Known about the structure:
- The structure is a single chain.
- The protein is of the alpha/beta class and 663 residues long.
- It folds into 4 domains: 6-103, PriA, 3(prime) DNA-binding domain (GIY-YIG endonuclease); 118-311, P-loop containing nucleotide triphosphate hydrolases (Rossmann fold, 3-Layer(aba) Sandwich), CATH 3.40.50.300; 322-361 and 421-559, Rossmann fold, CATH 3.40.50; 568-657, Alpha-Beta Plaits.
- The protein contains 18 helices and 27 strands.
- It has a 7-stranded parallel β-sheet, with helices on both faces. The protein has a 6-stranded parallel β-sheet with strand order 13-23-22-14-21-20, sandwiched between helices.
- It is globular.
- The termini are far apart.
- Residues 112-127 have low confidence and may be disordered.
- The structure holds adenosine-5'-diphosphate and zinc ion (2 copies).
- Residues 377, 379-380, 395, 397-398, 400 line the site of one zinc ion (ZN).
Amino acid sequence: MIRERxxxxxxxxxxxxxxxxxxxxxxxxxxxxxxxxxxxxxxAVGFVISVSGEAPAGIESSRIKTVRRxxxxxxxxxxDDLALAEWMASYYFCSxxxxxxxxxxxxxxxxxxxxxxADDMEGEGVAPAALELSAEQEAALSAITSSQxxxxxxxxxxxxxxxxxxxxxxxxxxxLARGKSVIYLVPEIALSRQTAxxxxxxxxxxxxxxxxxxxxxxxxxxxxxxxxxxxxIVVGPRxxxxxxxRNLGLVIIDEEHDGSYKSGSAPRYHGRQVAMKRCATSGAAxxxxxxxxxxxxxxxxEDGKIRRxxxxxxxSGGSIPEIKALSLAQSPGCLSRELKEAxxxxxxxxxxxxxxxxxxxxxxxxxxxxxxxxxxxxHCSVSLTxxxxxxxxxxxxxxxxxxxxxxxxxxxxxxxxxxxxxTEMIEEEVRRAFPDLRIRRVDADxxxxxxxxxxxxxxxxxxxxxxxxxxxxxxxKGLNFPGVRLVGVVLADTGLHLPDFRAAERxxxxxxxxxxRAGRYFPDGKVLVQTLRPNDPVIVRACALDVEGFFAAELxxxxxxxxxPYSRLIRFTLRSRDPGKAAxxxxxxxxxxxxxxxxxxxxxxxxxxxxSLIAGNYRMQLLLRGGNMASLHAAAGKALAACEQGRDPAxxxxxxxxxxxxx
Length: 663
Ligand code: ADP
Ligand code: ZN
Ligand code: ZN
């Protein structure tokens, strides 16, 4: 007689409980595999977390359904992964099933093996292994390689071109040579793919590269290769922190300050937090790096809880560029005379210019001079942006679009129109001023075009077929173009006054990163920063590349206001199609929080979110703030549990532990 086997499955749903199914007669089910099964009225893929010969007590055996299919031939997760998922579930207030789903690549059974690391991709920035390290690099490397398990993390702090990547790679080589594995995290931007592939190339077939262009089946195939131990070095964005490497020796977080390390959907985990947890469990070393650390990391360095390893010189042959702030206040258009002259001068030298503006579209908001009417999205409380080429007004949150009005829709006045400017408008002005220059614009609009607009533009710029590249963040980060002489920031203030306590930090960091693009390889780099507030301390310090000065002032302010890193936050967002229900649920949660909160903690709100309506959902927020995460976390857990009873099903509650964006 065949003995029955029962599988315990977790699903990617916000339910903590596991469900029991009967295994297939062939007994394929095993811990770590995925299984398709009926869940209510639908079929879903669950994760097998235990197998038992006994039917669970309390359920009549005839009522237990049989799984439909075992998805995987070999397990895709193990004990360690399950333990990490359980930790994530408790820290980020999600179910273990949701955590596993975030950790594991989806996709069908992995069969074909794909190797991406060994591809002959064109890569730049990674030097051949024969380079002789500078004294600072040597010191940094030996600090890392001689570190003891359980010691503090390291931080390579130095401007672009100071040789951080080279130290990361040597540390990785050191670990591999000792039979240990390495996870190398890079930000989630199109350009990281270049870096990732260049790193993969350096390590050949031993590297697995988990970039965003992989299909889910390719991703799963890489996963299997990593689990098997064939690929001891893994390069990829945020989710690569879950890579199932054996014998983890080192986690590298490049551009540690980057916002993409924080997940924007549940579970809202931070790659750095998960990396710290994994390193603590496995005794692996953690090494981060950036020219502009996050305020959290900076504070930990000041407190000696992260060891700062400074790289102070540019090794790439270039030097620190001249950075100058230009007031835009008196300028009629969006390009000042000085910036125009510099573009001309650069072109005459046969060199290239990057113009940066963190705002796409043609104009920013529609305003009526007569009655004050502003054109906002029907579903979101944000201004619509005029996109001239499409001749539409677009919502950048939900995609809603409408024809731009000819006259004010409210009072009929003709004194109404779009103000402010975006990349599309700058493009028009630049083309008018420099009809002889070859100009390309890259932003989310052009990148979305078929035929890989972004990669084509970047390749053209790199080869010298384009004189001036104009774009959003996409041009700011991770780009290294040897021919660039001039970087122009069209308007530095765009993000400075957003209702988010990190607005200054983000603006500063972005400006310093952009400035780092100039003069990487030549000593005559020039950065011109146009601003409406040339005396704003954030702008002044960014232009001086004064990271220490910026953080001294910024941390002082955070301390006074009680914001991170001087406190910890847990944010609840309550959203509903019905504004009354969202508000009622927020007040209810507020009452429970108040009951459980420790005396040293406080609640901000309930209040409308800075963007109070997105895609037809009204959003209210509640912010818990305290000095101690453990007690804050416990209180949040109790409040959420208490709220469960009698919860309004028309309201969805999002929990964000250590939120990064407050909008
Ligand atoms: P970062 O990661 O800090 O931006 P990289 O490691 O990419 O810096 O180094 C920048 C440039 O300097 C690269 O072209 C690299 O080849 C070169 N480089 C790095 N280390 C050295 C060194 N020790 N000697 C000479 N050149 C170096
Ligand atoms: Zn009007
Ligand atoms: Zn909208």
